[in-house]
Amino acid sequence: MEILWVLMALVMLSFVLLQISRRRRGAVGLVEPGHPDAADPANYGFAREEELDIRMPGPDEDLLDVLDLVQRTQDYRGAQQLLAGTEAKGERRWQRVQAFAGAASLELRQRPGGVGETPGGQWLRVWRAEAPKDAGGAAVHAEFLVQQAWRTATPGSDDFRIIMEEAKAACGEAALLAPGDPVPYIVELSVARGLGYRREEFEQLWLKILDRAPNHMGAHLAALQYWCEKWHGSRELAYSFAEAAAARAPRGSLLAAMPLFAVFEHLPEVNLVSGFYQSEVVTKAVHGALHAVHSADRDDPMQAHVRHLLVFFLVRGERWAEAMNQLMVIDGHVGALPWTLSSDPAAEFAVYRALAVAGYEANGGSPATLPH
Fold it and tell me: 229 near 238, Cβ under 8 Å?
């Protein structure tokens, strides 16, 4: 009994010391909107939570215009033309294929169809029927099947495997229609993860991508999932893959940010290490990602992905000013990790943004002191 009382006393003492420490460090917390102590993100020109676009990590007005047209008219030709005019080996083509496939998948989920009712995503079926040799349509269809498998079936189930096998065949067909296009093989990376390719088979697939687009950031992020501990690899294999990509990254490449994604994929569920987000492994990965976004082309569509993840780590590490610098660039779009893992990405992003603003102001910052 005496031991129990001693332990309880130690817990209470630790709690008191923690509160004192947090006050000394200017720690921040969230309060209700309208509270006198509440920092207002609107003072920085940030979008309201309900205005945040959850579909994409960053702006692509051409894509949004075409998506709106396709979904409004159910005519696929706008999507066909946009993909035909998008560089095959660039990051943007992969993102647009994902967006069109995702739109069709969500339409089907919202309108599965029935007696006398046209199912959602019909425009993609028409696209494949009317233009079976169109490489863009074939790639979108393959990605659509992949997304359907993850959305509608349980990994490892018969239904999941059936859809994934169909997706694998669709990837092969898309690759035949566009031999130099890496996108069908990037789509297949998700199939490889879902079906559990042997490592030799996965590495053969990966070599096909490297032959076509060796510095493709989207492909590396997709491949990283396979090597993660939760799928078919381990923390060590994932870190090794990410660090090797960063080491061979050419100047201006966002591949230097890959270790940060590997760290994120292996965050401990319960953080038992004090100052984990200021630890050497996190700090090194964050610095690599900061260097990557500072040296990369401002028009690189993968910049937003890196900056969103940086916000997560910078806020967790209480690096408020640096987090605010990232928010000034990406605010308005939240369709990226880590927010997309939440059932309400906009709300999750808004919490971190509010923490960044509060922390920035608690340490003497204001809209006037933030570089624009």
Answer: yes
